[in-house]
Structure formats: C-alpha cells, structure tokens
Amino acid sequence: MNILIVGCRKVGARLAAMLDREGHDISIVDQDERAFERLDEDFEGFKTCGIPIDQDVLREAGIENCDAVAAVSPDDNVNIMVSELAREVFHIDTVLARIYDPDREAVFSNFGLHTICPTNMTVAAVRSALLEKERPRTLNLAAHTVAFRTLPTPAHLIGEDVSRVDLEESQSIFAVEHGGHGMELYQGQQIELAAADQIVVASLVD
C-alpha cells in the first residue's frame, strides 16, 4: 500500500519503520526537519518537511497517490484538519487520526472520523486488568466489537488437535497460548493441545 504518515515523533517514526519493513510505500511529513532523525537508517520511504495542513505540502508528499493516511502528530487540531483534507479534498477512503483529548475523540468519532485515543485505550486496558480478570476482553473494529476469552484445555483433549474443542456456533478459535511459552495464531493448522495450554476464543458482540 501507499501510505502517508503525518507526524514523525515516536509513534509516527515507529509506525513508518514498521510499515516500511513490511514492504509498503511510505511517505512521512513533519514540519521539523530534525524529527526525521528518529527514522531508522535503512528507512526507504519519502520524507517531506512542511506544515501538514498545507495542501501543497500534502501534494508534495504524494497524498494524491496514497491508499491510506495516518495523522499521528502530537497536535489534535493538526490531525483533525489533515484527516478532513484527506477525506474531503483528496478523497482518501482510509484515514486515521490520533486524538489525545477523550472528549474530542468521542465527538469526531460520531462525525464519522476514524480516530484512536491513547488516553481512552490506556484507561480501558488498566480498568480491564484491575476489574475484569474473568471477563472477556473486547476490541472495537469499525462498527463491530470482538470479544476474546481464554479457556483451559479440557482434560479429555490433552494431546488432541485444537479443532476438537467444542464451541458455541458464534465462537471461533483465535489462538492457543502455550502455557506462558508463546502464542500460536490459529489458521486452520493442527495444534496439539497440552495441559497448560489456554485456548483463545473470539466472538462478535451484538
């Protein structure tokens, strides 16, 4: 994919490096030339120094040929304005904005802007860890919520394939956690269950 990242601070630089290593064509914009020093030495993407809300700067960075835009600068206003420009002016379908202020995140999310709020995500994760040890974890993906829960390996299935686990119709096997020794994502392959294994089950929440 051709992806434009706005903001080359810690998140933007790490995201750019990760996507670059995965083989995507990355362009990154920041108004501070020194910010690009955070990029890996082997970064092969395109760097543009300029004010991100300037349409000419975005054009120079190649936004007109991009499949997706991620606005992850430290400034909520910049991220919102870049997202609106990407959607309304350059007609990019996949646009993401990082919003620090939880109240603003809720407002712009209701307006159809795809947002991520680190504050809300951290609070939700801490609350879940403190209060919901026995409850399923949830993940919001667009308009859907996916719930994940772990199940111990039934005694009668030790040494058997994970596909033999009896699940409800709405549930699917997502992964197997091997007793603290790593997790194996389930993609239909054979996974022999051990006594210490935990089965990660996913289901859509209505």
User: Unreliable stretches, pLDDT < 50, 5 or more residues?
Assistant: none
Average residue pLDDT: 85
Shape: elongated
Biggest β-sheet description = 6 strands, parallel
**N- to C-terminal distance:** 32 Å
Q: Portion of residues in helices?
A: 25-40%
Q: Tell me the strand percentage band.
A: 25-35%
Q: What is the CATH class designation of the largest domain?
A: Alpha Beta
Do you know the CATH architecture of the largest domain? 3-Layer(aba) Sandwich
Total count of helical runs of at least 4 residues: 5
Write down how many β-strands occur, each being a DSSP E stretch of 2 or more residues: 11
Q: Give the helices and strands as they follow along the chain.
A: EHEEHEHEHEHEEEEE
The number of domains? 2
Structural class: alpha/beta
The CATH topology name of the largest domain reads: Rossmann fold
Order of neighbouring strands in the sheet with most strands: 3-2-1-4-5-6
At the fourth level of CATH, the homologous superfamily of the largest domain is NAD(P)-binding Rossmann-like Domain
Q: What's the alpha carbon Rg, rounded to whole Å?
A: 21 Å
Describe the structure.
The chain is α/β, with parallel strands linked by helices and 206 residues long. It folds into two domains: 2-122, NAD(P)-binding Rossmann-like Domain (Rossmann fold); 136-205, Alpha-Beta Plaits. It is 27% helix and 29% strand. The protein contains five helices and eleven strands; from the N terminus they run βαββαβαβαβαβββββ. The chain has a six-stranded parallel beta sheet with strand order 3-2-1-4-5-6, sandwiched between helices. A five-stranded antiparallel beta sheet has the order 7-8-11-9-10, with no helix packed on it. The protein is elongated, with a radius of gyration of 21 Å. The two termini are 32 Å apart.
